[in-house]
């Protein structure tokens, strides 16, 4: 008779790890999707359509902000607004803080492209590493914080 041995990557172990780190794992997953929306929109407007890279970047930031708000609210932080006022406040804070990171994104792109001579697509990808970290901190501490 063969004895079943639970492997290091058994389903129960994976489920336990997921449940223990669900918010971070979900943030990473939806952060990757948001980053893909951001970079994809940038590539479309900058490289495919030939729009100025700063305008393309602004459009991609707006698309990513809208995508991220709904996915972060519903799937990552599982935030439920109790009133319309609370929902508007969460949206206002989210957009406001994401615009702060968006300004950093725009400045980084400008510096990397115009002053350092880097390509627009590479600059966009490099900038996203810092943006994702900033956005997680903003979302966790200020926007979708849980009431104790």
Characteristics of this structure?
about 150 residues; mainly alpha; GtrA_CellWall_Glycosyl; membrane
| Percent range for β-strand residues | under 5%
Instruction: Specify the overall morphology.
Output: globular
Order of helices and strands: HHHHH
Structural class from helices and strands?
mainly alpha
Instruction: Return residue spans where pLDDT drops below 50 for at least 5 consecutive residues.
Output: none
How many beta strands in the DSSP annotation? Answer: 0
Count up the domains: 1
- Helix percent reads over 70%
**Overall average pLDDT:** 85
Major sheet size, sense and barrel closure: none
End-to-end C-alpha gap:
52 Å
Q: Rg, please?
A: 19 Å
Number of helical stretches of at least 4 residues:
5
Protein described:
79% of the residues lie in helices and 0% in strands. The termini are far apart. It is an all-alpha fold and 148 residues long. The chain contains five helices and no strands. It has one domain (12-143). The mean pLDDT is 85. The chain has helices at 11-20, 22-48, 53-76, 84-115, 120-143. Its main location: membrane.
